[in-house]
Amino acid sequence: LLARIEPGMTTEGYLAAYFDLAEQTPLVLETLPRVPSVLERNLSRELLIAGKRQLRALGTAVAERMADIMGVPEPTAYGLLRGLLALLIGTTYALQRPEVDTTSLPEDVQQDLAALNPREAFIESALWLVRGAS
Fold first, then answer.
1. CA 30 to chain centre
2. Farthest CA pair distance, the chain
3. 25: CB partners within 8 A, 6+ apart
4. Going by fewer Cβ within 10 Å, which terminus of the chain is more open, N or C?
5. Per-residue model confidence (pLDDT) at position 94
6. More confident residue, 102 or 65
7. CA 38 to CA 79: how far, in whole Å?
8. 69 alpha-carbon distance from chain centroid
């Protein structure tokens, strides 16, 4: 993500890069909802502590860059980063499409399923989150 953050990037551009990176990284969207309930629960105490510290260091580095893009103080950017992660998990999990051949469904149901675009839903919701923090 740090490599995708560019000087002069807009908030919407940042949010799109954030979502796109998660979507393009194998298994990220599938495993994120399971991190606390499955993965972290099965780690040793030492690995859990080390992992959380690594995530905090990375989150702090990202938040420093986010603060400039979004025009907010770094602590606010760090909070936004945590909120974006929760939003990413919720959006992608909630908008998963059923594993069925949609062409066999009634047209109105096909249209509703086609309208569920996790990327657009994430960016739109994230903009509301960012505007509230600004």
1. 12
2. 53
3. none
4. C
5. 67
6. 65
7. 24
8. 17
